[in-house]
């Protein structure tokens, strides 16, 4: 289980805290991108987490974010980016 968990989201899944590391955000993104670990398959959330992880120095997250964005509609990518900005603003 990730250590930087603040609370749980609507599905009872952990949400990252503002001090989550790039590696922790990347691992959470993997859960959403694959639908494993109890996470729903959610490309928007995965992209958001990969974006945040990349901003915190995860090189792997940059690769996964790019690959995932090729599987998504442009409005989904825009929503993921909006959610990442919102998360940063509330942190």
Give a structural overview.
Helix 2 runs antiparallel to helix 3 (59-69) and helix 2 (43-55) crosses helix 4 (74-90). The chain is globular, with a radius of gyration of 12 Å. It has helices at residues 22-34, 43-55, 59-69, 74-90; strands at residues 5-8, 14-16. Strands 1-2 form a two-stranded antiparallel sheet. Strand 1 (5-8) and strand 2 form a beta hairpin. It starts with a strand and ends with a helix. Mean pLDDT is 86; it is low at 1-11. It has one domain. It is mainly α and 91 residues long.
Multimeric status of the protein: single chain
Tell me the overall shape: globular
Compute the average pLDDT: 86
The value of Rg in angstroms is 12 Å
Number of strands: 2
In brief, what are we looking at here?
The chain is mainly alpha-helical. The chain has helices spanning 22-34, 43-55, 59-69, 74-90; strands at residues 5-8, 14-16. The longest helix is centred in the last third of the chain and has 17 residues, at 74-90.
Write the topology of this structure.
Layout: E1 5-8, E2 14-16, H1 22-34, H2 43-55, H3 59-69, H4 74-90
Antiparallel strand pairs: 1-2
